[in-house]
User: Fold this.
Amino acid sequence: MRIVVVGISVALLAAACSAPAEEAPTGQIVLSDGYELGGYNPVNGYAETGVSPIYDGLYRPSSDTDTALPELVPALAGAEPEPAGPNRWRVPLRSGVLFSDGSTFDSADVVATYDAVRDPAVASEISTSIAPIVTLAADGPDAVTVELNTAADPRPYLLLGILPTERIEDKPAADWAVNTEPVGTGPYRLESLRPDQAVMVAHENYWGEPVQVTRVVYTYTPDDNARAQAMASGAADGMNLPPRLIDSIKRDGISTVGVESADWRGIALPAGNPFTADLAARLAMNVGVDRAALVRDVLVGYGRVASTPVAAVYGAAYNPDAEFAFDLGRAETLLDDAGWRLGPDGVREKSGARAGFELLYNAQDTLRRDLAVAYAAAMKPLGIEVRPRGTSWDEIDTRFADAGVVLGGGSTPYSIDLQVYDTLHTRVPDSSPYSNPGNFTAPGLDELLEKAAKAPSGAAKDELYRQIQTTYSTAPSQVFLVFLDHAYVYRDSGWHQTAPILEPHSHGVGWGPWWNLAGWKR
Assistant:
């Protein structure tokens, strides 16, 4: 974690810490978010990693650092999973827990939530995330039993926010009432919602310690520059921003923090383009980009290089020897040897096909734009014509077959199996359209991924993941570029915040300094 305190004097800090209670700010904070409000349905991915103001999972992440994987500790579970047979565990449940609608939590709610994620009629976007669960059944009202098809730790699959049975619907999750009328066991409940603002207040019957931040106002501000202006003007107390905008809001009393994540950015390559379908071209595009320069110039230092979806935070499972070293000469040789020759306009050609592709990115995302432009510039000296263009996700979703796309990933980093499998494996039924869009796979890689996913934690599993990275590097499916340090700005108001933790792909104001608002103290 990197923290920069901007213009906060010692006197100001002392005043904030010593002010009498009647002078302290109220328990309200205002956060400006770039993500649309609503969609509060855990069956469709909200609170997928056990972090949410509204919902609890059976387990949740806990850590005092963002430089290591967090521990997964009991939340709605009453204790750690108890072994109950091969790949089978019994999970006791916390008693006396009430949902925000006053109903009582028990095992039926857990079973109903997980059954809904697996139900094809519900069309959950996260069904593959719990695919290793073979069965999840009630063991009386106060416990559940879980059987996996793997010897791995079950807790990463037991982070989903739990809904009351009565809120489960027999239709696509995108159309459920809880998207805008959520009911959970978490420390906050939704008081009001409109397109530009959501207000959450303390859940009066919360099972944990009463919260001190009693009211949180979320404003929807998709434009990065507009959010920065809101911070500078005092209209917001905190937000996430692209690193390049950090300097624009330097004011007294404003702090910035960069939080490490397993959130990667990269270039998905299309199978329908003759150039990107050529393995030699994909190798050349990987060794021909200076990732360290992207971290320095585009991320302004807020990040680390990425060659695969496995970050160094995974310890012994990370293989530094599988990183692509920047080597323009090798990239040129790969292209020459594959028959891609420079044409009169400086763009390589082969059998009438040009070495180039359109590179699409979400037009509202300035960081993806900057990465797209920088990547295009890096490819130009190699004779590769990359044409960046901002557009909507609606168009992007229809263009994976013939266009490159600036993608992000790492939505479930607390399990290396979940972090890697869908991203690198040959596409499987119900895969997200963003999982290995080109469907390129190195020989033998699928078998290694399947073996690793079923292996228990330990040295043998780590070795399998090192082999996975080596195998991928021989025949890459895309161009991973960087892991982000998510950049946040916040106004100091005298709160003692909880330390940030390693973050997933999601990085709005539900993360950063605010991931555990229930733990904030005066």
Q: What stands out?
A: The chain has a mean pLDDT of 92.
